[in-house]
Amino acid sequence: MICSLSSPANSSTRCWAEPYRISERRLMAIISFSHVSKKYAGDITALSELSLDIREGELIFLAGASGAGKSTLLKLIAGIERPSGGMLQVSGQDMRKVNRTTLPFLRRKLGLILQQHRLLNDRNVLANVMMPLIVTGADSREAAQRAQVALERVGLADKASALPMMLSGGEQQRVSIARAIVHKPRIILADEPTANLDRDSGKLVTDMLAAFNAAGVTCVISTHDERLLQGADRVVHLSHGRVMAMQSAGSEVGA
Ligand SMILES: Nc1ncnc2c1ncn2[C@@H]1O[C@H](COP(=O)(O)OP(=O)(O)OP(=O)(O)O)[C@@H](O)[C@H]1O
Ligand SMILES: [Mg+2]
User: Fold this and answer.
1) Is residue 24 exposed (0-12), middle (13-18) or buried (19+ Cβ within 10 Å)?
2) Which of 43, 127, 167, 178 has a 20 to 30 A CA-CA distance from 19?
3) Which ligand is nearest to the CA of 73?
4) 77 lines ligand 1 (CB under 6 A)
């Protein structure tokens, strides 16, 4: 079982396998997939009739072989891709109807740690972390202060003026986390956040995500890393775009 150690910023983390304190958590689904399909050009079916409810405050892992649909599921939640069929609601927003006006409001509730969202090397770490605030029109001085606080939360306050390329892979991923949480999102989406990290760096990153979850943030994390799945609150196993099994706090239920 993997338990979260105290992160550099938050010692009130909990063991990932600890049962929900239901009184502290709302039972309403914050993300709801109902018979959702996603087809890409070339008639490629990435998700097929997928139904899944994620409740506020949950920590969910998405597992499955390469091509199973994990990244596609995260992209649909983030509004990067649209469902081809079925109903998807994220924080009350019908994702079939999301548009240029409504997407920025939804994005303020989301923290994205996606593989293709690289850090920009033409600006320092602090400026990278400030970006989500700047694009939503925040005052640059306030954005800098909040970015500094976010860097402290991931233990990288002393790297604010460094360029991303001067950091290790694990440190860069922690900067990505700081950038994802700087605007205090309700939901964190992380696509293989420990890929290419050594064991210690991977553990630090996942402990941080667990710490944000312990503070009430809903986390949906895709991973190939078996070590992360042991003791997780809930694991959704995908295969060929479908939910094959769900595993929660020690039990396993076929889908
Ligand atoms: N932009 C795209 N255009 C066409 N097909 C795509 C696109 N993105 C993904 N696919 C296809 O959709 C399916 C699901 O891909 P997805 O990236 O969601 O899988 P994954 O579970 O994240 O895999 P991995 O573990 O390798 O990251 C695959 O067959 C993939 O080739
Ligand atoms: Mg993927």
Assistant:
1) exposed
2) 178
3) 1
4) no
* Number of Cβ within a 10 Å radius of residue 88: 25
How far is Cα 112 from Cα 157, in angstroms, rounded to an integer?
21
| pLDDT tens, residue by residue, 110-146 | 999 987 768 999 999 999 999 999 988 889 999 999 9
Q: What is the DSSP string of 20-62?
A: P-GGGS--SEEEEEEEEEEEETTTEEEEEEEEEEEETT-EEEE
Residue 40 CB–ligand 1 contact under 6 Å: yes
Alpha-helical segments (H) within the chain: 70-78, 103-107, 125-135, 140-153, 169-181, 199-214, 226-229
Q: How far is the CA of 175 from the centre of ligand 1 (A)?
A: 26
Ligand 1 lined by 164 (C-beta under 6 Å): no
Q: Per the structure block, which two tokens stand in for 34? A: 């109902």
In one letter, which amino acid is 249? A
Residues in the chain, overall count? 255
The verdict on the CB of residue 201 being under 6 Å from ligand 1 is no
Tens of pLDDT along 36-94? Answer: 999 999 999 999 999 999 999 999 999 999 999 999 999 999 999 999 999 999 999 99
Contact status, residue 45 vs residue 66, Cβ threshold 8 Å: no
